[in-house]
Sequence to fold (85 residues):
Amino acid sequence: MKTKHLLRKMKALLSADQRKQLAKYDSLSKVLGKLKKKEAALREKIEGEKDKDRRRKLMRKLKVVQAQRKKGAKLRREIEKLRDE
Fold:
């Protein structure tokens, strides 16, 4: 294969990776937004709940959602770094 042909193939592969990263970034942003809303809703439920057992269960759910948001935000920052390079 000639050099021009190889370069075109390489460029197509790189742009495909960039498109995949952009799609992953967009879907991750949507999920993080939903998790943020869910976290706010759980906080409201916790404030209004008087039963200790139910409150404990809601707190566990809240901690899980917070951990998911933290992990997702970290992944999104990593994708941003890769995009900037």
